[in-house]
């Protein structure tokens, strides 16, 4: 549990304790004078940055129950704030707590309004707290702190009056159905002969006061719980119950308190305020009277702690993530090592097997591939013999023609009309001669066309076409010549070009 | 707990610590994720290598059969100069012999630099670094048939494998009135001498 500074202020005195590890480690008293304040300052400086929880044991307090119309959210907040401002104009230490809701149709809300009507009890101590920038968690009403005791003791009496003696006097807190109702602090007179008689009288008066307020009925049995850490109220138990059937007394001495609450005896007897301080350390009440301006430092402390908590979570998440990654990484590396070792074993086995292989200049795959590729290349090679045959047959069928030259190629055909360009094919550009008499030009063209047709009809030929005619008779070209005396004209040699492409695979 | 923007400067230290921790954690996570990714890739590669090694062992019998089957033809190719380094001098000698055997009138030749084989895809030889050197030939012929005879004679020399890419024939004389032992055709051919470098060679 986090370290806390617990303070209980009264008009003349301040009790301070350090809460650490579920116990009060230091418990000191400071008088309401300059020396006391100096000592308190030193006390604070010994625990810098530790949140401070205050409670006040003073008669200048006010508790009242009010019923307000049922409301939600900001409406309820504004309603309560307005009521608080009406009730407590002169003090900043006030607050409200929703106690119960009526069960009728209006469902009105019943609030406990409380205030420390004189903030002077705190003023000098608060100034010192502000001076050392101590984060103030809140100001908590002492009776509300005391109610936490019932849970520890396991008391479920419906009407219970808690009586305790403090440095400020006798504190009586009435709890009905486990909820705080009324508290009174009565100053005690030192040196009285039989003080418990006076205390018993006060308790009886309180009982009548409760009846007068209709908080209890005159026949209701009220349990008086006497907290006696100093073991000085032994006679009070009998004095309270004497002649009063509606009052039942129960005293918890130091031994009972130590046994039932867990506080150690030395701490309990070190101060009259040790018990409420211990209870404040055990459980922080939700009912806080401190104004927000006073608890701003504590809010920042909480925010800072929350951020540090998130930081720690982020660090833990990062570590967990990285830890898991490292675990997986180690597993992956181990798997990899095992696989590498297995691979090496397989390779060794393979090496052993290859020793039985016949000696070879290259690997099996290379041998196979080299032989097969070499054969394919040889099979792909062509000589122009097939082209010769095709052209010879064409020329034989057209004896007027003769060949002046030929350019033969083997590769990817340039024309897409023949075969797909991915297959190799033979092609030849033929330069053909034709001797014609003047005036037979039209017949020459027919001869050429017939030759091309004859080539095209051959089963090996994919395509044949005239590339260049001896005369360009097209309308787009210029045709020039002379028609001189026909008797002087000689036969002329016409040259034209024909391209023939063989089918792929021929 | 009520806080405002004015409180942020007072929370600078925890906020800085948070930012620092988030940054360091993010960097560490990124780094470790990268390591995981790298390790997974390494594991994948190792598995692939193991699978390959296992397959090699399983295929070893088949491999032995392949070696026994192709070792002889491979040696023949090597002996014929198809495999390994080019045998250019042997090509020239073979040209000379083919010229003599076919009684031609002499052959002019020019061999270019070695280069990648032009028809690798057509020969389905993408896995092999097949090379070719283009030889340009110029020679005279008496008849067209001499061209075929010459290349067949060249092939019979067994000094390598070649492919004729192109041949241009041009008639020198139009009419032969009297038989004379002189070329009537001029041939210019382009021949690719094809070699397959030995394993581990260039």
Helix content of chain A: 25-40%
Give the biggest beta sheet of chain B. Answer: 4 strands, antiparallel
Q: What is the second-level CATH architecture of the largest domain in chain B? A: 2-Layer Sandwich
Radius of gyration of chain B: 35 Å
Number of strands of chain A: 17
Identify the CATH architecture of the domain at 4-60 and 118-294 in chain A: 2-Layer Sandwich
Helix run count of chain B: 4
Question: Can you describe this structure in just a few lines?
Answer:
The complex is a heterodimer of chains A (506) and B (202). Chain A is α+β, with helices and mostly antiparallel strands.
Descriptive notes:
The complex is a heterodimer of chains A (506) and B (202). Chain A has 506 residues and is α+β, with helices and mostly antiparallel strands. Among the domains of chain A are: 234 residues, Nucleotidyltransferase, domain 5, CATH 3.30.420; 104 residues, 2-Layer Sandwich (STM4215-like). Helix content of chain A is 40%, strand content 26%. Chain A is built from 13 helices and 17 strands. In chain A, the strands form 4 sheets. Chain A has a 5-stranded mixed sheet with strand order 3-2-1-4-8, sandwiched between helices. Chain A has a 5-stranded mixed sheet with strand order 11-10-9-12-13, sandwiched between helices. In chain A, β9 and β10 form a beta hairpin. In chain A, α1 runs parallel beside α3 and α12 packs across α13. Chain A starts with a strand and ends with a strand. Chain B has 2 domains: 48 residues; 108 residues, Alpha-Beta Plaits. Chain B has a 4-stranded antiparallel sheet with strand order 1-2-4-3. In chain B, α1 crosses α2 and α3 crosses α4. The termini of chain B are far apart. With 202 residues, chain B is of the alpha+beta class. Chain B contains 4 helices and 4 strands. The chains are: A alpha+beta (506), B alpha+beta (202). The interface between A and B is large, with 76 and 82 residues. β14 of chain A pairs antiparallel with β3 of chain B, so a sheet runs across the interface.
